[in-house]
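lol forgot to send this yesterday, sorry. struct tokens for the thing we talked abt
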């Protein structure tokens, strides 16, 4: 049996909603997805990648719209991720530095690339497991973002 997740991730990768906003978001998401097996808060010390699993289809340049090679993206993900904190005492995670894109040579960060299915980078997520609700409407995403105090991206993960 496959598992599906819907995770709401702040668009600002470093943003973590305050405790009251987290509670509001959790309460609202539970009302929107009453059939979900579980709804949880996901918290990371550093910036992590929230991926779409088997729904990950395509990566494109945000500047010229060219399709980006998965090999280049994978190498860049490895370069950008620090699993041992450095001298600045930053936690492990993605640094989201700007890299020259292989298509047009312009600079962009990994979180600025165009992903289909949607992906996100962040320290926080509000996740429903097997919510049985399909795609959230723009209105639902906006309401959940308002409850969390930030704009959010909905990541649909299929495992």
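and heres what i got for the seq, position by position
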């Amino acid at each position: 049996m496959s598992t599906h997740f819907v995770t709401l991730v702040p668009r600002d990768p470093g943003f973590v909603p305050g405790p009251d906003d987290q509670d509001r978001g959790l309460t609202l998401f539970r009302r929107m997805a009453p059939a979900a097996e579980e709804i949880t808060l996901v918290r990371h010390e550093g910036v992590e990648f929230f991926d779409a699993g088997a729904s990950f289809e395509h990566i494109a340049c945000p500047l010229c719209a060219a399709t980006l090679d998965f090999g280049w993206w994978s190498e860049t993900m490895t370069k950008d991720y620090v699993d041992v904190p450095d001298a600045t005492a930053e936690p492990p995670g993605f640094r989201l530095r700007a890299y020259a894109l292989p298509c047009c040579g312009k600079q962009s960060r990994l979180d600025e690339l165009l992903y289909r299915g949607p992906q996100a980078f962040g320290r926080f997520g509000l996740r429903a497991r097997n919510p049985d609700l399909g795609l959230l409407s723009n209105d639902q995403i906006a309401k959940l973002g308002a409850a969390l105090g930030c704009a959010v991206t909905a990541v649909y993960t299929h495992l």
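The CA atoms of residues 25 and 147 lie 5 Å apart. anyway ping me if u want another try
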